[in-house]
Fold this sequence. Notes:
Elements: E1 16-22, E2 31-37, H1 44-47, H2 58-71, E3 74-80, H3 82-88, H4 90-104, E4 111-115, E5 126-130, H5 138-161, H6 167-170, H7 176-185, H8 196-203
Helix pairs in contact: 2-5, 3-4, 7-8
Amino acid sequence: MHGRLKISWSDKGLIEAGVDEAGRGCLAGPVFAAAVILPYNPSDDLLQYMNDSKMLSHNRRTILRKQIEEESVAWSVAMADNQEIDKINILNASYLAMHRAIEKLDIRPELLLVDGNRFRPFESIHHQCIIKGDGLYYSIAAASILAKTWRDEFMLEKHEEFPQYYWNKNKGYPTIEHRKAIFEHGASPLHRKSFKMGIQMKIGF
Length: 205
């Protein structure tokens, strides 16, 4: 897998930050985003298994998260909670979480590599949207891993408070088990009210 992804999008020596989010399609919990600036010459050990977080096992993501946090020039993670999602919609909340992550970086990037096909510009920093970018560029893959692992950790903690929804298994995504639990127990304070109609339709009752 090493060498399949690209280190840089630009050949101008710009400080690039990969940006990605996790949790956009969930029924409960926040949307998380991460921004990562990798070194110009990342170690082979870091790059060897780097990939889109969805293509990696839980154990591999956990190992890579530690390596990313230790070896990156700068990294940050931020979120927009379910109340913000309900207020401004999930797309705008995803932008908000990404903007918060970029703003928290210790180093200001000169170019943002954003996973997906849409992004709201952040200040005056140039950005490039890249469809399936988490499988094409190391920095976006790194951001996807941080966003995913941080969000999963958050939902595991909340599972202890709301075990009836099985967030330890579904992390807030609309599995059959999760939808049935909402039907039986009602929505929790972490569920997205703006998804209520979709929840009802997908439950099938």
